[in-house]
Write a structure and sequence with these properties.
single chain, 118 residues, mainly alpha, 6 helices
């Protein structure tokens, strides 16, 4: 139940963050949250990475075809990270794409300037 509450909170925060940007990008924060939802327990508690998490990472990477898509996904990920706060393990988040064998063009970090993502 706690995981469902976290996911619901994450989806709501992402929707609020993305509302002003929704017309500018094909990827919504809801789509980002949906694809990465199965990663939350790993990112906050550790353990093994669920297969569904890596499937979501691959799906999201495939959805982010344009610069605008990648920038929006970056912003959504950062918004979700802020929502998780200190519960998020930044090292696990940074290494998640590589652990799922997905190559992305920018680092997963709170310091990433999403406007510079290409």
């Amino acid at each position: 139940m706690e995981g469902l509450l976290k996911l619901s909170t994450l989806v709501i925060v992402c929707m609020l963050v993305s509302a002003p940007m929704a017309s500018e990008a094909a990827i919504s924060c809801g789509a980002v949250a949906s694809n990465l939802g199965q990663c939350i327990n790993y990112l906050t508690r550790g353990g093994f990475i669920p297969r569904g998490c890596c499937s979501g990472v691959r799906r999201l990477n495939g959805m982010a075809r344009t610069t605008r898509d990648r920038q929006q996904a970056c912003r959504c990920i950062q918004g979700a990270a802020r929502a998780l706060g200190s519960r998020l393990n930044a090292r696990r988040a940074a290494h998640l794409p590589g652990a799922c064998r997905v190559r992305i063009a920018y680092p997963i970090s709170a310091r990433t300037n999403c406007n510079k993502v290409r």
